[in-house]
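Lab channel / #folding
Pinned by the channel admin:
"Please post every new chain as: sequence first, then the structure tokens as a reply. Keep commentary short and put observations after the output so the thread stays searchable."

First post following the new format, from NK:
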Amino acid sequence: MKKIIALLKDKPRLWHIIFESNDRSSRAFDVVVMSAIVISIVCALLESSLRVEDFSMEALLNQQMTTLGIIKMIIIVMEYVLSLLFTVEYVLRVYCSPVKKDYVLSFFGIIDLLATVPQLLSIFFPPLRYLSLMRTFRLIRIFRVLKLFSFINEGYLLLQSIRMSMNKICVYFLFVLSLVTVIGTLMYMVECDAPGSNFKDIPNSIYWAIVTLTTVGYGDITPVTGVGKFLSSLVMILGYTIIAVPTGIVSATMIDETKRSGTNGRCPRCNQKTDLRANYCKHCGEKLK
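Reply from TO:
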């Protein structure tokens, strides 16, 4: 107990154990957390697949619960115990962070919070506990534990490319939104009076346009007139070209990012300060020259 209290008082050491993975203690901590995440995911999957009719505390006390019911209750108890463990871990991460706001608002900080809160709120609304499967995202930290920095670098490149392409993607999304609205309205004008047509209103027609343009094609709404079928064929063909645009935007940005070199003492990938004489970024490993 004294060692634990001493460790809690030593924030730099606690931060090193929790956030780093370059010594035995920090690697052991990461392995324990990763193992707990895998166990919690398996428990959630098993619990959702077990169908028990009489599942209540009264049935357990009266010894009327089946074996499957007892197993399901044990799994649920394990989920809550693991959630308590993750809650303590999240509190410790916030506690030892030098700048708490940076961690709380970071990607992993948000994921850690979203993976912890639903299980606690499930006391009032049980289905929320399945949101704990968001812990799967936390397994990304395994690349850091195993020193797979090349994967991390590629992840930085992908995130940076998406971030830089976001304005173009938003403009493209607004264009597609306008396009499906126009197409849905045209289809409604063509099909609304046709016998047996399912195009009874514009929102329903816009839904059809989205399904058709994305080439999903549920088939729950189909045109019955010749003009409607012709318009539907054009939308299907248009869908193949529409879907490829966002991929092209991100791909072009990724190519540009890989060709950039460090300028003004900052890494072109992670935008962190680097030594002007350095050949590689000390933060993400990006080649600077």
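NK: Residues 166 and 247 are 12 Å apart (CA to CA).
TO: also worth noting, The chain has two domains: 2-147, 152-259.
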